Every structure is written in structure tokens, then in C-alpha cells.
Amino acid sequence: MKLARFLMSREGFISVLCYTVTAVFSFLSFAPLNLPIFVWFAPFGLFIIEKRNRGEWKKLIYHGFGFAILFYLVSFHWVYHMTTVFGGFDWYLAVPIFIGSAILLNFKFPVYLLLFSFLVKKVGKFFPLIASFSILFAEFFTPQVFPWYFGNVVAENQILAQNAEYTSAYGLSAFLFFVSYYLFYLKNPKKILHFLFLVRSVVTKHQKIAKQMLVGQVSFLVVLVLFFGNGFYLFHKWENIKPIAEREVLIVQPNAPLEFRDGRNPAEEIRNLMTRIDRMVESELKEKPVDLVVLPESGVPFFTTHDSEVTRTMRIYWHQFESLMAIISLRHGANLFFNELDADIPGGNGSSRIVRSEIRTYNSSVLMNPNGERKNSYQKVFLLIFGEYMPFEWMYALSGQTGQFAPGTKLDLIPYYERRKTPSKVTKELHWEDTFGMSPDSVREHYRANQIEENTIGSFLPLICYEVIISEFVRKFEGDPDFIVNVTNDKWYGNSVESYQHHTLGRLRAIEFRKWIVRSTNSGTSVFTDHLGRNIENDFTPIETTATIRKKVSVIPGEMTFYRLYGNLLSYLFMGIVGLVFFVYAKRNS
């Protein structure tokens, strides 16, 4: 009742309006709408609420939760779809789950309001660095399963986005709140006129105050010039870099099913899927070969091509799956990168008897070379909580769709090999139908005449789904990749904006690494992104459908960028220095 009375009051209306400004303006600025002009005004809602409730800590916490819920409702509405459609929860359970996750995973809003209000009271005057410091602290030190930083929204501006080479999204968040707080301070036209008259009178009468005001305005201009100037320089620097090679890459988007609770026949659906993949590849590559074919996460769900005693015990090894992958790579003489399940017993159990409780299952991607041989694999390291594992064993009973995966332990690049450059020498090309009577070994024997000398020509950085949006994790990979391959499955979220948001959050890895990204999805949106963070020809595959897309991927000369070398060093230095200045200033004026 108390909440209802508040919402119907004038104060409640203004508060909800402020929540809405921040949530809607942020959403409009981000993918897929991409209207970046709104981002500069999105923090206004936070500034207004803080000013109206300055020093009232309990109210600021409640308002922070209000921002969290509305922000989640506008930008992450697809979480409700995932909870009801794939989680299987009824609405009366899905709603509290949605609200609870909104509060828990958007703690940055109450933390920001509390810290910002505290520092404003301590400093006692207009000081825009407070806004930058507070948002950096809130984004660094609060939990976020799907980390959407305000800096990611700023990065929709191609020039400003280039600064991510030094600061990732964090530095852009600090820049946004610095500029936005200035705009908020000058939001009243009368205040601007008063400010100009004040400057004129102060310059003639109060030299000390005039000097302070001049320093403030110069600082604002310096920050603008620094970010826009550096972005402009980096954009033109990297735009003129000549690639050392080009690789032809084909992405196959098969729109594979995730589950069969609607009564479909699983065996028939999988057969249709395998036929579809075979025909899509054949149609694209019959006349135009490529160096690399990429299938997405869960492109062929539930199975593995890794033939071992453990995978046979788990009944996830399927010889027809391996046979088809070998057929595709041998038929077209191309590298094939695909996703699968994998399983082992870490360290062995010291016994010939396999105990199921000791088996670990992995979300894995593997490369098959042009000779149809299974080569290096990568097991997903950074797992998604509530999607690929539960924090507590008893929680698995809540949702049958949650996986029970173990994290991988290696962060190795995936080598790939020179493709076959001569036409196929076999008289009969094999297809999916042939796998019913042919083992993987017999497929390789059939294509023996097509086999070529194995010659490594490069390597790429493999990322599975969610991993691409975690900048601190991706930079842990060592070596110099030719490009980044991100395989993902966003089918869990239906025909929503989630797939665009997911890609846009990961797009900054292209700038941080100065490497192209090949994004292969199961049901959309697949896309190629260059080393400047530009989506090539803005060519996205549609959602909830089958599609193929191919481009020439440029191999950019290797260079360890600042962010790869030092990570978030600049952001930590900024917080440390500004925090020290605040401390000294507050102590001197206490």
C-alpha cells in the first residue's frame, strides 16, 4: 500500500519519469536502434534523483532499485521470455525471478547513487569528476551477469569507440558521465546566460574565482579534445593499416532446435538438421571454396565427434555426426570449426570402471582440417551462471534446461590449415545420406585422393557465446591470432533484441585486439566485424531462420595493444588519483 501511494503521488510520478528517462534513452542509444544522441541525456534521471534526495541514504537505495527494475524491464525484457519459454516457469514464478534478478544484477544503480551523493556532499560544489569516479566504481565492483556498461552505449559512436583500445568500455563510461554532468549543470538556458554575465563580472573583480572557473572550462574542453582527438587519430591510423592476408570464411546458421517439449520427433528433427547443414554448405561451396567454415554453438546439439570410452558411456558420441563433419571438410577441402559436447574424467579415476559422477561435461568447439581429421579443440572456460551451471546442486531441480558443464582449463589459440586448391578428385561426392552406411574412417578412405599436405597458415582466438563480452577474460589468451571467432546460440531469447545487444557488447573486443570478429550464431544474428569495430556492410543474418553469410576476413598485422598489455590500468589509475584528490580536499575542508 505504501508503494502504491508513493507511485500515485507527485514525487512518485517524477521518480518513475526519471527511471524511464535513463532506461529508455539508454535503450534507444544501443543496438539495434543505434541512436547515440540520446546517450548523453540518459544519466539525467540519476542526477535528478540524487539531487532531490541528497544525503537521504535509504531513499537513494530504494530509488536505485527502481532504476534497476525499469532498466531491466526496458533493455533486458527478453530474460522473461527465457524464464517462461525455456525455463518452463509459470508467470507467477517468472515475475518475481525477473524482479529479483533485476535488483541483484543491477546493484550498480544504488551503489552509484549512494557514492555520488556522498561525494557531492563532501566536496560541496560542482565537480564533474565525481560523476565519472562514481560510475567507474559502480561498474567495476558490482555483480553483472550480462555486463552492459554505459560505455558500450557510447561506443555506438565510431570515433569515440576507438578509445576502447586503451580503456575498454570503462573509460567511455567515465567520459559519458563527465560530459553528461556538465550538460545537466547547464540544462537551464537562463543558467548559461547568468554564467556568461558572471564570468564577465568576475574576470574584472575577482581574479581568483575567475581562475577557478577558467580551469574548469578548460578541463572540460581538454577532456573532449582528448577523447575525440585520440579516437580520430586511432580510427585513421588503423583504417590505413594494410592486411597481411585475407581468409575467405563462410558462416552457416542452421537454426537448430534446442528442445522437443512441443511433441516433435527428436530423431526426425536431427536428421532434418543434418540434411539442412549439408545442403547449405554444398550450395555455398560447390563453385566458390573458402578457407574456413564456421558452425555456431549448438549447431548440432546433444552430440560429440570425440570418440572415447567416456563419450560412448555418456552416449553422446555419434559416428554419423563425425562422418558428416569429415564429409564437409574433405568434399570442399576447407577447415571446419564446429561446436559439440565433450566429456572426460579429469586426471583419470585410477580404475578401469567409469563412474558417471566423476565424468565432467564440456561445452566444446573443435576444428577439423581439410583432410577430415579432428584437430585442436577449445572447452568453454567462462561459463554462464543459471544457463550452464547452478551455484548450488539443489538448484538444478528448478530448471531442466540448465546445463551441468565444467569449465575448461586451457586458453589456447586454434591453428588452421591451408585449404585444398585443386578440384575434388573423387567420382562420387558424399552427402548426409551416405553416413548411414559409412563410418568416419570409411569416409576418409573414400576421399583419400583429396588429401593434401597439412600446412598451418595461422590461428584464431576461439570464444563461445557469453565469453566474448568479458573483456578482462578475453585478454588472458596468449599469442597473436589472425582473427577472433565467436560461436554463440541466442535462440534461448526468441526473436528479440538480445542477439544484437550480445554482439554489440562483444564488438569492442575487435577494437581492443585490433582483429576482425567472425560471429556465428545458431538462429541470428551472424555478422563480420572489422578491427575498427565496424559491422561489414551492416550485413546481419535475420533472426529465427536459416542463413549463410561469407566475407573475406583481413588478417591485421600483429600488435599488442595497450589494453591487451595492461588491461584496466588506466581506469584503476584514474579512480586512485581522483579518490586521493577527493580525500585530501575533503580533509582540508572538514
Helix/strand-derived category reads alpha/beta
**How many beta strands in the DSSP annotation?**
11
Give average pLDDT, whole number.
Answer: 89
The portion of residues forming beta strands comes to 5-15%
Proportion in helices: 40-55%
Low-confidence stretches: none
- Report, as a whole number of angstroms, the end-to-end distance: 42 Å
Biggest sheet architecture: 6 strands, mixed
Number of helices: 21
Give, in spatial order, the strands making up the sheet with the most strands.
5-4-3-2-1-11
How would you sum up the global shape? globular
Radius of gyration: 27 Å
Pathway: Protein modification; lipoprotein biosynthesis (N-acyl transfer)
Family: Belongs to the CN hydrolase family. Apolipoprotein N-acyltransferase subfamily.
Domain CN hydrolase: 247-562
Subcellular location: Cell membrane
What does this structure look like?
The protein has helices at about 1-10, 10-30, 45-50, 55-75, 80-85, 90-105, 110-125, 130-140, 150-155, 160, 165-185, 190-205, 205-240, 265-285, 310-315, 320-330, 440-445, 470-475, 500-515, 560-565, 570-590; strands spanning about 245-255, 290-295, 335-345, 360-370, 375-380, 415, 455-465, 485-490, 515-520, 525-530, 545-555. It is an alpha/beta fold and about 600 residues long. The chain has a six-stranded mixed beta sheet, with helices on one face. The protein has a five-stranded mixed beta sheet with strand order 6-7-8-9-10, covered by helices on one side. The two termini are about 40 Å apart.
Question: Brief description of this entry?
Answer:
This protein is α/β, with parallel strands linked by helices. It has helices at residues 2-8, 10-29, 44-52, 57-75, 78-86, 91-104, 108-123, 129-140, 150-154, 158-161, 164-185, 189-205, 207-239, 266-285, 309-313, 319-332, 440-446, 471-474, 498-513, 562-566, 569-588, and strands spanning 245-253, 292-294, 335-344, 360-368, 374-379, 414-417, 456-464, 483-488, 517-521, 527-529, 547-555. The strands form 2 sheets. It has a 6-stranded mixed beta sheet, covered by helices on one side. The protein has a 5-stranded mixed beta sheet with strand order 6-7-8-9-10, covered by helices on one side.
